[in-house]
Specification:
41% helix, binds S-adenosylmethionine
Length: 252
């Protein structure tokens, strides 16, 4: 990671981006092409799609939201990668209405499974979009992180509710329809036929630390980013991470 000052938003994406960037580099080596075909299912406004395109990859974003796709188009143009980013309106459960099976070297599915009625079917579609030796990057909300953050905010009943609710929701007002444990997410990926290459805990501390501390203490943001990177691979911290990232690989 760079030692330059970084914006606070990087706390949300840094760990996943580093893992994803390495995975894309490995894929490029494996397939012997610099420019990969990448599918970002539920790619939204392009938080990952645009940086991936800036690496030289061709990225197709499938998302049901016309507003998100509009913002994606503008963002890609501003980044100078409009020719490498294609937005398509569609749903992960109807993926092959809009893209080809076996058509991509890498598939991203970040922050989407929480909102999908049939997560296992969503993951199976994401995997079916991969070419042989393709890689899946799956990111979803973690159950334990929600329990911890509700408890630390003093919402003890909600924390217990999330712990026992089958979907990991803390109550009626919970905006997230579904959360996962690392075992559940890994099970979805291996159940769809991929090998698990890595599991990372994401935003273990970032959402719990007072914002003022990170914004005002010199060097605090950089130090927190380094701490997040260090704990991400430690399985002991997976059970309290706000998000979980699973990297799956299709073996020939
Ligand atoms: C939390 S945002 C994540 C956006 C982006 N992947 C990221 O990591 O920044 C969730 C996105 O999933 C999209 N989405 C919701 N339901 C979906 C579905 N069934 N199929 C595909 N995308 C969906 C939403 O429109 C939204 O853009």
């Amino acid at each position: 990671m760079s030692d330059q000052p970084r914006p606070r938003a990087s706390l949300r994406t840094a760990v996943v981006w580093e893992v994803l960037k390495d995975a894309l580099d490995r894929q490029a080596e494996t397939v012997g092409r610099d420019a990969l075909d990448v599918l970002d299912t539920g790619g939204g406004t392009g938080n990952f799609a645009v940086p991936a395109a800036r690496l030289g990859h061709r990225v197709t974003v499938v998302d049901p939201s016309p507003n998100a796709l509009f913002a994606l188009e503008r963002r890609a143009a501003e980044a100078g990668v409009a020719d490498r980013v294609r937005g398509v309106q569609g749903d992960i459960l109807g993926l092959f209405d809009v893209v080809d099976r076996d058509g991509f070297d890498a598939v991203l599915c970040h922050g989407v499974l929480e909102y999908v009625d049939e997560p296992a079917a969503g993951v199976r579609n994401a995997v079916a979009a991969l070419r042989p030796s393709g890689a899946l990057s799956l990111l979803a909300a973690g159950l334990g992180g929600a329990v911890l953050s509700r408890a630390l905010a003093g919402h003890f009943t909600e924390a217990r509710q999330a712990l026992t609710d089958p979907a990991g929701r803390w109550g009626e007002g919970d905006p997230v329809p579904r959360r996962f444990t690392a075992e559940q997410l890994s099970g979805l990926v291996s159940g769809a036929g991929l090998e698990i290459a890595a599991v990372h805990g994401v935003r273990v501390f970032a959402d719990l630390v007072p914002g003022a501390l990170v914004d005002t203490e010199p060097g605090a943001l950089e130090a927190l980013l380094k701490l997040e990177a260090a704990v991400a691979e430690q399985s002991a911290f997976h059970s309290v991470a706000a998000q979980l990232h699973v990297l799956g690989e299709k073996r020939r």
